[in-house]
Amino acid sequence: MYELIWQGSRFQIIPSKRVPKRSGATKSSPLILSAHTLDLKTWKDYVLQGLCADGIRDVILRSWSRCRENGVDPSQGKCRDIRSDAELGEAFRFLRDITLDMQMEIYELIRDRGLLVTISEERGYLLGMFGDVKALTAADRLNFGPGANWSEASVGTNAIGTALQCCHPLQVKGREHFCESHHGWICSAAPIFGWDGKPVAVLDISGPMDSDHRQALELALHGARHIESRLYRIEAAQQMFRAFNLVQKLFGATSAGLVLVDPEGRILEGNNAAADLLGIPPGQWRGAKAELWFDLPRSFKAFAKNIAEPEKRVRAVRCHTNPALPVFAHAMSSPNGTVMGFLLILQEPHFSPKGSSSSRSTKDPFQKVLGRSRAICRAVDVARRVARTDTTVLLVGESGTGKEVLARAIHEASRRKAGPFVAVNCGAIPSGLIQSVLFGYEEGAFTGARRGGSRGLFESADSGTLFLDEIAEMPLDMQVNLLRVLEDGQVTRVGGNKPIKVDVRIIAATHRDLAQRVADGLFREDLFYRLQVVRIALPPLRERKEDLELLVQHFLTLYSKTLARRVRAVLPDFYDALHRYHWPGNVRELRHAIEAAVALMPNDVLSADCLPEAIVQKDGPAPGSCDHLDFNLRRREAESIRQAYAHFQGNISQAARALGIGRNTLYAKLKKLNLL
Ligand SMILES: Nc1ncnc2c1ncn2[C@@H]1O[C@H](COP(=O)(O)OP(=O)(O)OP(=O)(O)O)[C@@H](O)[C@H]1O
């Protein structure tokens, strides 16, 4: 293989020292090509006199016309515009370097056929030239070599320059060349197109007329496509690199957490902010399944379906490990709608009162009753309907399940909302006082009675709601009085004889089985039926664990605000522990657990370590477990109550708070344990 090179003042043919990557020389039988299609007179008539004869191809005629307009001299012997590497610039050198081996490969296909192969860049300057000595010798005579400008404007109609002009493959034979010195050549050239569809180079196979030009144009075309795909790959890699760099810069520059996920749901990239928000070490998640952290599979399917509708390309996604974290998945699609992946944007949760349930509650009182479980929704639905009436309601459920929360919501949703909501724990009032507490007393009714007497809770609740908590603890002898008030709508103060009209709606609550109390003779049947006109049951938290995260989120918002502590991330073990626990104290216990965790968290990340010990105990009693564990639980409960009561020196409020149960419940339990 020989090579034509520029020696500063002239071209020189040298044996090429370059080694082709692979050799695939094809020898084929000679093909006799028609010498040329135009006679000398046709060429002369046009180029010298502008006379147009039949038989000139359109593409050639248009090129000749351009050459005449550009003042190309048809008698010029050699190319005069030859530039050095330095003059041709960086892009020229880059293109030459990445196409050199391909020129050599193509040369192997035309070896010994008296041809040469050359590539020119977009302006027409030749990048390099390889060929047989015969072809290179002829090329040298024309200054047809690397650095020479083979555009139409420079050397007239020729395969390279004209292919660049008309943007399609072309063979120019003999007298179709505009300059007479090229009439002994046949040149086959195919443009190489860039991303934008414009030619960036031309591959040319040329040689004297008597060389073997069989399939030269097909070869040029094939080579051009081959180079084109290499250029595309390089361009694609560069674009990817640029995009990746940009993405990395953006990822690093934003405070939002960003995670890039491929269509198979694997994490391609994520920034430190995202790692921070999820509480995992940065950089360790590349290739991991996104579903470990995010609830993606369903969203993926939905996205795939709706990808054509732009407004459906963004979805809120749940983060398993931190449900309080707002996460939005943005679908990325190709122009034909194929899902190419997702960008997950994780926004730092702002625990602000705005938009929190407490502010929303001003609109709908039932929004304070948190929960989406069926049992809670059913309870709220009944409560919502009964709130429109004055009907007596009985709320049943374990301690801390939200009976008072629901009673308040009923009051606030009723026509009585402007009136008072008065709550009383029937179990907490000493039996000797209960009558006067509820109905009031007149002056002098008993020793120590206030001067002028006192209103009872019924009078205080006039035009509003009286919430009778722990109604099962009401002494039997008092129950008949209560029944009377419910029937008559009037009270008589202790020591008085004048009935006072009261307009009070009664909501009663108990954690006991009231029907059983009736059966045991501890509760009046008539009062029982009078109270439970509408009965609403509130489920224990362990039976509605699907509400757990919502409640946690609510209490996190509340306590991060009231305790002025920012919660940046919640680790998975925090939720694991909460889910494992059986919550005997229900939502109240959960509330206190979250308050304690936020208060005790050492930095701004919540983990299981921040939770009270009883909750994280893995060997603790399980819900619904066998008898000896229930016994164990009771024993532990009694111990805890004794310890707390002693620790707080008999202060029931503080002890109840520490135990995570209500004051009334503690009061009842203390009584049962004979501690009062
Ligand atoms: N569904 C709920 N949504 C929001 N908070 C709740 C809910 N249920 C309970 N709570 C919270 O739990 C705590 C206890 O609720 P509440 O006093 O209403 O329970 P209770 O059933 O009346 O308990 P007790 O029978 O011991 O008096 C409250 O601090 C309340 O904020």
Automatic annotation (TrEMBL):
InterPro entries attached here? AAA+_ATPase (IPR003593), AAA_lid_NorR (IPR058031), GAF (IPR003018), GAF-like_dom_sf (IPR029016), Homeodomain-like_sf (IPR009057), HTH_Fis (IPR002197), P-loop_NTPase (IPR027417), PAS (IPR000014)
A biological process (GO) of this protein is: regulation of DNA-templated transcription
Q: PAS domain spans which residues? A: 243-287
**Which PROSITE patterns does the record cross-reference, listed alphabetically?**
PAS, SIGMA54_INTERACT_1, SIGMA54_INTERACT_3, SIGMA54_INTERACT_4
Has the keyword Translocase been applied to this entry? no
Alphabetical UniProt keywords: ATP-binding, DNA-binding, Nucleotide-binding, Transcription, Transcription regulation
The protein depicted here goes by the name: Transcriptional regulator of acetoin/glycerol metabolism
